[in-house]
Amino acid sequence: MSALWLLCFAGWAAVLAALRRGVRGPARGPVLFAHTATPAGVVLLFSLIGFGSLYATILLAAEWWALLLVTGLRPERLLSTGGLGRLAAWATVTGAATLATTRFVFQI
What is the pLDDT of residues 76-105, one digit of tens each? Predict the structure, then answer.
């Protein structure tokens, strides 16, 4: 369980570092604020709809590592030059990683 939290935090920190390095101009403040607020917001949402934070942690870790993989460690590419193809790849990789990790953690 703690390995999953570490993996989630490492993904979050890697995306934060990439966003700090890559996003410039007036969009930088809102982008960094939204990324910083994401973990708390997602955990709160999952608790409100009846899932625990373990599911949220699995999803967030999968999203952040898939984002780094699909964008080549430059998450700003998802919106600036990515198009629908990159967005679809991110969604597909996130879904596959979430499913695989959930099955591994719960041994389904």
Answer: 888 777 678 888 999 999 999 999 999 999
Task: For residue 94, give the amino acid letter.
Answer: T
- The conformational region for residue 62 under phi > 0 = left, psi -120 to 50 = alpha, else beta, is alpha
Question: Nearest 5°: CA angle at 45, between 40 and 51?
Answer: 110
Coil vs helix vs strand at 87: helix
Cβ proximity of 11 and 70 under 8 Å: no
| Nearest in space to 68 (alpha carbons), one of 97, 105, 42, 26 | 97
DSSP label at residue 37: H
Nearest to 101 by CA among 56, 51, 70: 56
Can you give the pTM of this predicted structure?
Answer: 0.86
Would you say 47 and 38 are in contact if contact means Cβ atoms under 8 Å apart? Answer: no
